[in-house]
Specification:
Blueprint (H helix, E strand, L loop, with lengths): L21 E4 L3 H10 L3 E3 L5 E3 L12 E4 L15 E3 L1 H15 L3 E9 L7 E7 L2 H10 L5 H5 L5 E6 L17 E5 L4 E5 L5 H19 L2 E3 L1 E5 L5 E6 L5 H5 L5 E4 L3 E3 L4 E4 L3 E5 L9 H6 L5 E3 L2 E2 L5 E2 L10 E5 L11 E3 L1 E8 L9 E4 L1 H10 L1 E4 L11 E4 L12 H15 L2 E6 L2 E2 L7 E2 L2 H12 L11 E3 L6 E3 L12 H5 L2 H19 L8 H4 L9
Parallel strand pairs: 1-6, 3-18, 4-5, 4-9, 7-8, 8-10, 13-23, 23-27
Antiparallel strand pairs: 2-3, 6-7, 9-10, 11-15, 12-13, 12-14, 15-16, 16-22, 17-21, 18-21, 19-20, 24-27, 25-26, 28-29, 30-31
The chain binds adenosine-5'-triphosphate (ATP) and manganese (II) ion.
Manganese (II) ion binds next to α6.
Keywords: ATP-binding, Cytoplasm, Decarboxylase, Gluconeogenesis, Kinase, Lyase, Manganese, Metal-binding, Nucleotide-binding, Pyruvate, Transferase
GO molecular function, one term: ATP binding
Subcellular location: Cytoplasm
Length: about 550
């Protein structure tokens, strides 16, 4: 594999104020794995895959994510609870703190880049305190060739110091000791007090979600993507756990990427990353063979529990529900190289509706597509968060509000325009509950969701004639009556409930949650988009 040998180049970190560090530059992933084991920071599974624990944090900490508010960003960013501001002075202080903390230590440095389309390539240098954090960066960012490495000029710098926590957080604009901060002027990302790897990944994603639309006229998207043999692209938007990684990993289509993409004005889409970051809770070879087999040496498992024989017990969520694996994209057999393709023909909005009221598949009009994109609906179920006993609706604009520095309508306008120009079809897929809400019904079987998506991609769900579909009386979306490979009884959610009254009560409840959430966007949305929402809110 490219660049799996250690580099002979030497670099210094003095220019960043990191003094007297023992620098391990661009180590091969095998070497990083060995060092991790030697330091007692990880274990190997019986197939030789590295498994580590991320410590106190097993997920991102969105409340401790800040963006530096300065002349460049103050009028551009949509400040609020998902984009918290911090002053340049506080940033400078914390940067110094981290530089001092990292000085005199053994460190791991990796040069890589993001954005697979050469036109948008952005070089990133990452300095990590832990060897396995550096191996994660090898897996997730794009890997430069020897030649690219020779002439490498870093544009962004990521400093990752999980062992540092700010002792007086309130005095420096923080909530608590750990933090994740982006400075767009200095082009530096700080991650401290948390070893959760997703902080680095989603930090750079957030940076691109600002830079690409503001400076390069590219629409950044929280979506996965794949492409057929004859070059027809599909993309899948959705919040965490709705199925982006699972459904884009399709042996019959070439994987472009599982989480972050850009849509250019040259009619193409490209992956930001060089790897995938899959959930592994309840992972089985039978249901998800490609992801299961990607867990091999080179991959990094996070927060999993072992059985006695050294096998991973994927059913065990005793550390967290959010058990994960990162692997370089080439661990999947059928991939698109390089990771870009032409305009999508189909867009899927994935939602895990725990109320069991949205149809498992429906087609959206352009106005409905805009409405649902701005709403970004999914549901949270009991178990994943403390105190959540029954399903709760969760709305996250653009299916990724925590990563979107600009106002949601900025991304929505770009998407609407691109969708119209490209003439795409937009589908709403409920990968959540059927036959009743969480606790009563059951989650839609993966094989049926896959069959629905395959039917769309094969052109078997045209919905050309009025008789082919039914307009949902509450949500107004077009629900197909038949779909190859799917029992027809599953296509109408109401029919799966066996209790019309209970179904409509729940549907109205969800429709009202949509209305309540959309109020904040009403003044920005056109009359047409507002009409893309639910059609009825009660009897
Ligand atoms: P993230 O943004 O956190 O990476 P994601 O959108 O990529 O999340 P996945 O990792 O694909 O989400 O997680 C979907 C989970 O739901 C998987 O564990 C998958 O096995 C499970 N699942 C169960 N039923 C379905 C279904 N019908 N469709 C998709 N996924 C399903
Ligand atoms: Mn994913």
């Amino acid at each position: 594999m490219v660049n799996s040998d250690q580099s002979t180049k030497t670099i210094s970190l003095e220019k960043y104020g990191i003094k007297n560090a023992k620098i391990n530059y661009q180590l091969a992933p095998e070497t990083l794995q060995e060092i991790t084991l030697q330091k007692g920071m990880g274990k190997e599974t019986n197939n030789g895959t590295l498994a580590i624990n991320t410590g106190k944090f097993t997920g991102r900490s969105p409340e401790d994510r800040f963006l530096v508010k300065d002349d460049y960003t103050k009028d551009k960013i949509w400040w609020g609870p998902s984009n918290k501001a911090i002053s340049p002075e506080n940033f400078d202080f914390l940067q110094k703190e981290i530089e001092n903390y990292l000085s005199n230590k053994e460190l791991f440095v990796r040069d890589g880049y993001v954005c697979a389309d050469p036109k948008y390539k952005m070089n990133v240098r990452t300095v990590t305190e832990y060897p396995w954090s550096n191996m994660f960066v090898y897996n997730m960012f794009l890997r430069p060739t020897e030649e690219e490495l020779e002439n490498f000029n870093e544009e962004w710098l990521v400093l990752c110091a999980p062992g540092y926590a700010c002792p007086q957080p309130e005095e420096h604009g923080l909530r608590q000791g750990n933090f994740s901060i982006l400075n767009f002027t200095k082009k530096i990302a700080l991650v401290a007090g948390s070893a959760y790897t997703g902080e680095m990944k989603k930090g750079i994603f957030t940076a691109l979600n600002f830079i690409l639309p503001v400076e390069k006229n590219v629409l950044p998207m929280h979506c996965s993507a794949n492409v057929s043999e004859d070059g027809e692209t599909a993309i899948f938007f959705g919040l965490s756990g709705t199925g982006k990684t699972t459904l884009s990993t399709d042996p019959n289509r070439k994987l472009i990427g599982d989480d972050e993409h850009g849509w250019t004005s040259e009619n193409s889409i490209f992956n930001f990353e060089g790897g995938c970051y899959a959930k592994v809770i309840d992972l089985s070879e039978e249901k998800e063979p490609d992801i299961f087999r990607a867990v091999k040496p080179g991959a990094i498992l996070e927060n999993v529990i072992f059985k006695k024989n050294g096998e991973v017990d994927y059913m065990d969520s005793s550390i967290t529900q959010n058990t994960r694996v990162s692997y370089p994209i080439y661990h999947i057999d059928n991939i698109k190289v390089p990771s870009y393709a032409s305009n999508p023909k189909n867009i899927f909005f994935l939602t895990a509706d725990a109320f069991g009221v949205l149809p498992p598949i429906s087609k959206l009009t352009p106005a409905q597509a805009a409405y649902h994109f701005i709403s970004g609906y999914t549901a949270k179920v009991a178990g994943t968060e403390a105190g959540v006993k029954e399903p709760q609706p969760s709305f996250s604009a653009c299916f990724g509000a925590p990563f979107m520095p600009l106002h949601p309508t900025k991304y929505a306008e770009m998407l609407s325009k691109k969708m119209t120009e490209a003439g795409v079809n937009v589908w709403l897929i409920n990968t959540g509950w059927s036959g009743g809400p969480y606790g009563v019904g059951s989650r839609m079987k993966l094989k049926y969701t896959r069959a629905m998506i395959t039917a769309v991609l094969n052109g078997d769900l045209g919905l050309y004639n009025y008789d082919d579909y039914h307009i949902h009386s509450v949500f107004g979306v077009a629900q197909p009556r038949e779909c190859p490979g799917v029992p027809s009884g599953l296509l109408s959610p109401r029919a799966t409930w066996n209790d019309d009254k209970a179904y409509y009560d729940m549907a109205f409840k969800l429709a009202n949650s949509f209305r309540e959430n959309f109020k904040q966007f009403e003044s920005y949305a056109s009359e047409e988009i507002r009409r893309g929402g639910p059609q009825r809110y009660g009897y």
